[in-house]
Design goal:
This protein has three helices and seven strands; from the N terminus they run αβββββββαα. By secondary structure, it is of the alpha+beta class. It binds nickel (II) ion.
C-alpha cells in the first residue's frame, strides 16, 4: 500500500467525470487499498479516486473510525449508482479532503438506495440514511466532478475558493522560506 497525494480545490482535475470500471481486479484492489490508507492518514471518512487524480468510479469510506477505539469498518464502492432517493431532505455540515478545513451545511435527500460492486467484484445494494447517506452522496458527487461547495450559493462558493487559494499560497510561502 502507498500513500497518494490528495488534490485540493480549485483544481481542474476535480471537475473530471470519472469512468466506470469494467471489472474489479487486483489493480483495482490495490487502488482501493491505497485510497483507504490515504484516507485514514488524512484523516477523513470518505475518498473518491478522482481526489488522488484517478478519474475512475471508485469510492472508499469508513464511518467507524471517528469514534475512538472502534474497529475499522472500511467500505468499498465501485461503479455506485443511485437507484432511489427520498423526497425528505436532511441538512448536514460537510467537509471534504479536497476542500481542507472548510465546512458548510448542505441539503440532500435524507435516505438513498445505491447499487454498486464491492471489493470482491460482487454486485451489492445498500439502503442508507443518516451520516452514511450524506457521505455516499458526497462521494458519488465527486464521480461527476461535483464538490460539496457546488451545492452552495455562488457567493459562498467563491468565498470558500478564495480562502483555499489564500491558504495554499501561505503554505507555499512557508515551504519556500
Ligand atoms: Ni469530498
Amino acid at each position: 500500500m502507498a500513500l497518494r497525494t490528495i488534490i485540493t480545490a480549485p483544481d481542474p482535475r476535480l471537475k473530471l467525470v470519472s469512468d466506470p470500471l469494467q471489472e474489479v481486479d487486483d489493480t483495482t484492489r490495490r487502488l482501493m487499498d491505497d485510497m483507504l490508507e490515504t484516507m485514514y492518514d488524512a484523516p477523513g471518512i470518505g475518498l473518491a479516486a478522482v481526489q488522488i487524480g484517478v478519474p475512475k468510479r471508485v469510492i472508499v469510506m469508513d464511518l467507524a473510525k471517528e469514534k475512538e477505539g472502534e474497529p475499522k469498518k472500511p467500505m468499498f464502492f465501485v461503479n455506485p449508482k443511485l437507484i432511489w432517493a427520498s423526497d425528505e431532505k436532511a441538512i448536514c455540515e460537510e467537509g471534504c479532503l479536497s476542500v481542507p478545513d472548510l465546512y458548510e451545511e448542505v441539503e440532500r435527500p435524507a435516505r438513498v438506495k445505491v447499487s454498486y460492486v464491492d471489493y470482491f467484484g460482487k454486485d451489492q445494494q445498500l439502503d442508507a440514511d443518516g451520516m452514511l447517506a450524506v457521505c455516499l452522496q458526497h462521494e458519488m458527487d465527486h464521480l461527476e466532478g461535483t464538490l460539496f461547495i457546488d451545492h452552495l450559493s455562488r457567493l459562498k462558493r467563491e468565498m470558500m475558493l478564495k480562502k483555499l487559494i489564500k491558504a495554499r499560497k501561505a503554505a507555499e510561502r512557508e515551504v519556500a522560506e
